[in-house]
């Protein structure tokens, strides 16, 4: 394609990407280098219905003047990135100096909010992503073998978890796994333990969140694989059958290699999606047991005191995390692309 | 129905039923736009304010439980999205910090003759809000179950432990106790209450430097942990919405809840007559032999936005004063603990009244208190789940608060 045609063809999406993706990210990055102005405070007497107290209150005029001088706030450089709420360099080196064993060091680092969230986020990503791919493929293979009449309804039913809004789906499951809910009560009977509560124990909460993640994302993988299955060349499959390939061997040596690009695509999407897990944590009220990077951002921005700088820094670190996760997959795709081009 | 006809109907209805409560009512010009939390007492106030808005004036309202999240943005706009925000002693702080609400001295002098002196919230000598109801957390008990185990109504948290053990030992309930311990704002409030009960100071006097890593802090955390032994293991998901159904279905014998929830527990909905009859509000409890109740007092009141015209401010003030009129109080007596004179305290109010008369402290109205509150609920779950020591948790709270306070400019 001539470069001119290409440019004319691409510029609307290019413009949209700059406006809606690049600029917001630049703005967030800017925000992460700034913190609020120093609050000028003075003692005042406050009287309420119950009693009067002398307290510190923000001196409006003085603080306003500071804000008018520099609307972005105080420049803090990478200070927000390295404070305790984020990468916590000082704290980590202190823990390193004070720890008498490697286990102690890990426990100390795990106590810091960012690393704790990072650990859960990575665990969630690396458990949910492969399971989603495996289940998606199995369901697609299964549905593909169904008789034509039952195919439509089955596909529709399999897509349901993806159609339900994540927050709502999470809330529905939250009440079902309650000790009085249908799943919670059934589990208590199965394990013969009247105190069994999925919400009370940290490992069970993690498992519950991951099961939810697999339940919610599998339909996506299924749909993509199912579409891919329709294009698998039947002559290759027939040739494999004539050569005596079993059903498993057909899948392993014909279908999976043929659908490799799709698999890479789903892996990319799932790594990105799972790395920013948030909704199940909110709807399962699981904040006490499991926090993700996105939850930290959400927590910084909700409530009445909003920590914009902190949220921006966590956002940038999340983007960095996604980039690191995707690098191996992208390198592989790039190599394949080049090989094909030759 | 268009807005105009609706307003006409509303004002006619007012004329027919309640009579005109104030000479200023109805307001016929300006605009009244209300942002408020979403619970029955505030519905009553806002509906009465609406009744005062006559033809020629505009009215709109937004009841939302997320009111605190939008208030600063909504009032920063010029003109402000809302002319009044109904606040509590913590949610007024961000508005004060940014100068988004105006002093009300002139308006009070002009239209506030019926207000009680204790309703006027003065900050640095200026009236910034008009309080109309009080709230506090206190104990609620099932008298029938206490009778079964032969125990008195607890007056301290130590007695709660004792009674809870007796109920468990008698095989009545495994988990007889609950409080609002969901690991969000709710848990932070319980830590604040318990720490106040231990007589603790949150900050070094005259500074924004936190000082909770002390004996009272350790005692606070340990008491919470002991109490949670008698609360269902799901306690970290318990907010008002989770605990009230448990109470109404008879699964709890003692609970610490907001005074404003009691009305819903003793009405004839959602529960059996036996449970309702046995549900008794008790006072706020002390802890560790202290004299001050381990509970904080809250008020709800209305403020007027800065970024609006004086005409709108006056219209809004008149409407809101009508919203908290004696007629409203008499018609909604049991929905809240009203601060107005016409209020007759009923059963639902006993707990809050007891907490106030026992000298409970108001929730600290400090610009940086919200940051400490967040640090509490982010770090305390680790301790309650037995993952770390009380000292470690307190150190974590201080570190988390300090990082946030530095970012917000309260600490250097």
Keywords:
heterodimer, A: 342 residues, mainly alpha, MetI-like fold, 3 domains, two-stranded antiparallel ribbon, two-stranded antiparallel sheet, 16 helices, 4 strands, 71% helix, 5% strand, globular, B: 412 residues, alpha/beta, D-Maltodextrin-Binding Protein, domain 2, 2 domains, 11-stranded mixed β-sheet, 17 helices, 11 strands, disordered N terminus
DSSP strand content of chain A:
5-15%
Q: CATH H-level name of the largest domain in chain A... which superfamily?
A: MetI-like
- Which quaternary structure do these chains form? heterodimer
Q: Give the beta-strand count of chain B.
A: 11
How much helicity do the residues of chain A have?
Answer: over 70%
Average residue pLDDT of chain A: 90
Strand content of chain B: 15-25%
SSE succession of chain B: HEHEHEHHEEHHEHHHEHHEEHHEHEHH
User: Which structural class fits the helix and strand makeup of chain A?
Assistant: mainly alpha
Q: What top-tier CATH class of the largest domain in chain B fits best?
A: Alpha Beta
One letter per element, helices H and strands E, the order of chain A comes to HEEEHEHHHHHHHHHHHHHH
The CATH class name of the largest domain in chain A reads Mainly Alpha
The largest pleated sheet of chain A is described as: 2 strands, antiparallel
């Amino acid at each position: 394609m001539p470069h001119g045609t290409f440019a004319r063809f691409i510029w609307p999406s290019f413009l949209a990407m700059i406006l809606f993706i690049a600029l917001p990210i630049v703005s967030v990055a800017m925000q992460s280098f700034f913190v609020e102005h120093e609050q000028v405070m003075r003692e005042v007497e406050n009287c309420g219905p119950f009693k009067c107290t002398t307290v510190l209150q923000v001196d409006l005029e003085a603080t306003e003047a500071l804000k008018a001088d520099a609307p972005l706030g105080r420049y803090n450089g990478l200070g927000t990135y390295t404070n305790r709420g984020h990468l916590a360099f000082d704290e980590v080196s202190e823990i390193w100096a004070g720890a008498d064993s490697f286990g102690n060091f890990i426990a100390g680092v795990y106590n810091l909010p960012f690393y704790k969230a990072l650990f859960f986020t990575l665990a969630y990503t690396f458990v949910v992503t492969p399971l989603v791919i495996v289940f998606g493929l199995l369901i697609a293979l299964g549905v593909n073998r169904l008789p034509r009449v039952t195919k439509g309804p089955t596909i529709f039913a399999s897509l349901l978890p993806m159609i339900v809004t994540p927050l709502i789906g999470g809330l529905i499951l939250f009440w079902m796994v309650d000790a009085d809910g249908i799943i919670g009560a059934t589990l208590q009977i199965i394990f013969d333990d009247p105190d069994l509560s999925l919400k009370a124990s940290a490992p069970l909460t993690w498992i519950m969140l991951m099961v939810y993640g697999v339940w919610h994302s599998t339909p996506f993988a299924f749909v993509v694989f199912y579409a891919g299955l329709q294009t698998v060349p039947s002559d290759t499959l027939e040739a494999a059958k004539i050569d005596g390939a079993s059903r498993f061997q057909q899948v392993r040596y014909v279908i999976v290699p043929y659908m490799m690009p799709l698999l890479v695509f789903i892996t990319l999407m799932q790594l990105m999606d799972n790395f920013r897990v948030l909704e199940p944590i909110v709807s399962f009220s699981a904040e006490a047991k499991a926090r993700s990077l996105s939850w930290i951002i959400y927590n910084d921005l909700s409530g009445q005191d909003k920590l914009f700088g902190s949220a921006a820094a966590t956002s940038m670190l999340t983007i960095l995390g996604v980039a690191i996760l995707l690098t191996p997959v992208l390198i592989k795709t790039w190599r394949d692309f080049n090989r094909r081009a030759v | 129905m268009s807005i105009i006809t609706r307003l006409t109907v509303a004002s006619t209805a007012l004329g027919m039923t309640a009579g005109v409560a104030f000479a200023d009512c109805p307001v016929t010009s300006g605009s009244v736009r209300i942002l408020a939390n979403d619970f029955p007492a505030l519905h009553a106030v806002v509906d009465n304010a609406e009744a005062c808005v006559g033809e020629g004036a505009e009215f709109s309202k937004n009841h939302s439980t997320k009111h605190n999240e939008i208030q600063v943005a909504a009032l920063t706009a010029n003109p402000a999205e809302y002319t009044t925000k109904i606040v509590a002693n913590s949610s007024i702080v961000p508005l004060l910090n940014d100068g988004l609400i105006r002093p009300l001295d002139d308006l009070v002098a002009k239209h506030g003759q019926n207000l009680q002196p204790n309703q006027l919230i003065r900050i640095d000598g200026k009236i910034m809000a008009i309080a109309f109801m009080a709230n506090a957390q206190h104990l609620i008990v099932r008298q029938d179950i206490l009778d079964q185990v032969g125990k008195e109504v607890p007056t301290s948290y130590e007695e709660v432990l004792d009674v809870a053990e007796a109920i468990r030992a008698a095989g009545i309930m495994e988990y007889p106790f609950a409080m609002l311990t969901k690991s969000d704002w709710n848990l932070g409030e319980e830590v604040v209450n318990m720490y106040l009960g231990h007589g603790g100071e949150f900050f070094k006097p005259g500074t924004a430097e936190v000082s909770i890593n002390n004996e009272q802090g350790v005692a606070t955390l340990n008491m919470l942990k002991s109490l949670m032994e008698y609360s269902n293991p799901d306690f970290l998901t318990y907010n008002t919405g989770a605990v009230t159904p448990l109470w109404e279905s008879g699964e709890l014998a003692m609970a610490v809840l907001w005074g404003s929830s009691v009305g819903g527990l003793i009405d004839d909905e959602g529960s059996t007559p036996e449970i309702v009859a046995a549900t008794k509000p008790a006072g706020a409890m002390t802890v560790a032999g202290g004299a001050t109740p381990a509970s904080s007092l809250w008020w709800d009141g209305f403020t007027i936005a800065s970024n609006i015209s004086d005409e709108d401010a006056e219209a809004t003030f008149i409407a809101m004063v009508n919203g908290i009129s004696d007629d409203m109080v008499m018609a909604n007596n049991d929905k809240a603990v009203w601060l107005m004179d016409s209020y007759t305290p009923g059963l639902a109010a006993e707990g809050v009244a007891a907490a106030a008369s026992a000298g409970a402290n108001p929730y600290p109205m400090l610009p940086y208190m919200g940051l400490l509150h967040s640090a509490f609920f982010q770090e305390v779950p680790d301790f309650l789940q037995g993952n770390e020591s009380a000292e470690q948790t307190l150190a974590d709270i201080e570190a988390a608060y300090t990082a946030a306070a530095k970012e917000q400019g309260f600490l250097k």
